[in-house]
Amino acid sequence: MKKLSTTKLIDKVKFLETFRNVDPNMPVSQILFLLAVALEPERSMRSLAESSNVPYASASRYLQALSDGRPAMGVKGLGLVQADENPMDRKQKLVSLTAAGEKLLEEII
Question: Count of domains in the chain?
């Protein structure tokens, strides 16, 4: 196995700690979903699910957790992403980062 440099290892730990500071229980798959949104904003949920290699139902749960949650049920989200109606297809939602999501990603880059 190739030995990691101390600097690279510290960078990777800091990367993960940034997300753990937002939500200590955030699963890695949810982090990957957030990064997929950051890489290509305004993508459909289906496209994000496919690129994240997760079922659509899981992507939908990630969206809830990363956006505003489920306020009617008293579940608060993280406010890092938002889903807006696609003006070309009202049945479709386009997902993008919020200002808070952009700020979080700036911290890790």
Answer: 1
pTM over 0.85: no
Rounded Cα distance between 30 and 14, Å, is: 17
Beta strands in the chain (DSSP E): 43-44, 69-70, 75-76, 81-86, 89-97
In order, the DSSP letters of 82-104 are EEEEETTEEEEEEEEE-HHHHHH
Buried/exposed code over 2-21 (b: 16+ C-beta within 10 A; e: otherwise):
eeeeeeeeeeeeeeeeebee
Domain containing residue 66: 6-108
Q: Is the pLDDT of residue 76 over 90?
A: no
